[in-house]
Amino acid sequence: MEYKPLKITKFNNENEYESEYSKRINSFGIIKTEMYPNLMKREISKGREFPLFVVPLLEVQMLMQQIQEKSIIIKDLADQLPEVAKDQFYKEQLYKAVINTNEIEGVKTTRREVSEAYNAVINRSKNEKIRLLSTVRMYHDILINNFLKIDSIETIRNIYDELTKGEIEEGNELDGDFFRNDFVNILDQNSGKLEHIPPTKETTIILMLTNWITFINDKTIPFLIKASLAHFFFENVHPFYDGNGRTGRYILSRYLSRKLDIYSGLVISQKINENKKKYYEAFKITGDYDNRAEGTFFVLYLLELLKDGQDDIIDILDSKKAILEDTFNTLKSMDDLTNIQKRILFLVFQSTEFVDDPKEGIKDNEIIDILSSEYPKKTIKDNIKLLRENNIITKTTKAPSRHKLNSVKLFKD
């Protein structure tokens, strides 16, 4: 029998509604939290009457198992990549995570802006006026320091401040000690209907997020269920005037990166953006008063999104890895190229194959740094120049100098 929301049970047979809720909330193995979300009924706030809970259905358990298995596959595939390819693939996923998480909230973000911010982070630029610098720095921290301990209200505020620095519009500044302290509502982006009314007073927000902090640090709850419920509740509280989704998805990404792998953590924003309508519908279902704060369907949906994102990552890594191997073998068999030229070409190829924009490929000076332990720097520079003059590579940027393979010229019959 199909497992359905309580609201459908109420619609089909109201006499069974209370008993069905009691059966679910009191069943063996239930995950019942101390988090009480604000619930809605027909555009009216019904307050915080019921605790958020999940029924650990077999479907939920299977999804959790599949996600962990796929994460192992992703890590294995990524570990097989050459270092340059791996770095480029990570960079591409970071770009997409930042662009997509902003786009979900209607914040226009270009690839060029993210690229400039990323290069500034890598080069440790002190120019704080670069747009998205702080955001990209936070996402880059996932790679170099993926543990983020959230054990205080102050930590949440610090994450928000760093993540959204320079991105919050005038009029949306916080007016409480840590969070907002005034009324907001959330409207459906298409219909304009009222979807959610979060708590108004900062004291209530702090109380709810204190319970949230206790929940996320509870080691007795399966981590994927914990991540999903925590994401729902954080967005339900809506502690800021602007930037709630970006902050919540960053926390989710960082947690999944630590518990699974970096790519699973970064892909979630992209999948949410591709499925925005269903994502918001999942919030609506759990936030419906007649469903009594049951988070089962939200957990199911978020885990499905995560699994789909992992499938995308695996497909990309599989296909790109095969292309890399073919290219390596082709270059190896080309007698008209010297060993140093083959090395240069393979570095150029792997650096552009894993990013959407060839202008993001490896810099010439990075090629020189990599190969300088084996060849004189002048020899490397001369061979890069020779390959360009022979039209085997084409310059994509001048300052800094980058190239891409002219595959038609290189692999012609």
UniProtKB/TrEMBL annotation:
InterPro entries: Fido, Fido-like_dom_sf, Fido_containing
A Pfam family the protein falls into: Fic
Family annotation (Gene3D superfamilies): Fido-like domain
Feature type site, description Important for autoinhibition of adenylyltransferase activity: 105
SUPFAM superfamilies: Fic-like (SSF140931)
Domain Fido: 151-304
Active site, renumbered: 238
Signal sequence region: none
Binding positions for ATP per the UniProt entry: 242-249, 279-280
GO molecular function: ATP binding
UniProt entry keywords in alphabetical sequence: ATP-binding, Nucleotide-binding
Presence of the UniProt keyword Membrane in the record: no
Top-level taxonomic group: Bacteria
Listed name of the protein: Fic protein family phage protein
